[in-house]
Write a structure and sequence with these properties.
Protein name: Nitrate ABC transporter substrate-binding protein
Order of helices and strands: HHH
Number of helices: 3
Organism: Syntrophobacter fumaroxidans (strain DSM 10017 / MPOB)
Radius of gyration: 17 Å
Keywords: Membrane, Transmembrane, Transmembrane helix
Number of strands: 0
Largest sheet: none
Shape: rod-shaped
Helix content: over 70%
Structural class: mainly alpha
Distance between the termini: 43 Å
Oligomer: single chain
């Protein structure tokens, strides 16, 4: 990502930022699911 910044490759930077956002969202959903499974008494 740093290399793309120094070369001013804007489309690649936007694609990498989008991929990072998707990975972050996926991790958030996974941790929310695990939290719901492990702490079922809090959700009820």
């Amino acid at each position: 990502m740093v290399e793309a910044q120094t070369r001013m490759e804007t489309p690649l930077l936007i694609a990498l930022m989008f991929m990072a956002a998707l990975v972050g969202y996926g991790i958030d959903r996974l941790l929310s699911f695990v939290n719901g499974m492990l702490t079922r008494w809090k959700c009820a």
